[in-house]
Amino acid sequence: MAETLFSAVYNRFLGQITDDLYLELTLEDTLKDLQNLLVNAIPGFEFPRKNLYDYTIEVKEINEDELTPDEFVLGTVYGELPEVSETPRILVDKSRFNIELTPEEINILALLMKQGWVQRQVTSIESTRMKYSGSDFKMTS
Fold it and tell me: What's the pLDDT score for residue 69?
């Protein structure tokens, strides 16, 4: 069965924005934020040809050598020290659409995620603006 990893949409979205917030967050918090943005973007996709609500949210522990380039790595699993010959275990986001999306559909979802992200930025600026008056708050280029 064909499927599309959420990370394909995350990567397209992250390539369109610049946000220092993601540098400050833990990988788990970044993943939660990206998942929320993506799930909230789905209703904005008008007239999709496929059922975008057919998705699975899942995090798995795998061997490092099973990792593919498209997967979103959350970190290394620590516990007992592995033997020298053992492959490290890592946590990977395996969240996916249970359907195969076209590049165009991935782009649309990434743009809808960006729209949600921009709305959050504007709301944050408006909240700051309301706390200050006149010359205390100036937008600079």
Answer: 84
DSSP state of 1: -
Whether 115 contacts 41, CB under 8 Å: yes
Query: What CA–CA distances, in Å, run from 112 to 39, 82, 95?
Result: 10, 43, 18
Whole-number average pLDDT of the chain:
86
Q: Across the strands, what pairs with 2?
A: none
* Residue 3: per-residue pLDDT: 94
Contact indicator for 94, 73 with CB cutoff of 8 Å: no
Name the strand (E) or helix (H) holding 63. Answer: strand 59-63
Which letter does DSSP use for residue 84 in this model?
T
Share of the chain above pLDDT 90, in %: 52
Reading the block at residue 107, the tokens are 């782009």
Q: Name 87's Cβ contacts closer than 8 Å, sequence gap at least 6.
A: 63, 64, 65
Angle at 103 between CA 67 and CA 5, to 5 degrees: 30
The side-by-side arrangement of strands in the sheet containing 59-63 is 59-63, 89-93, 72-76
User: Nearest CA to 20 among 28, 12, 11, 30?
Assistant: 30
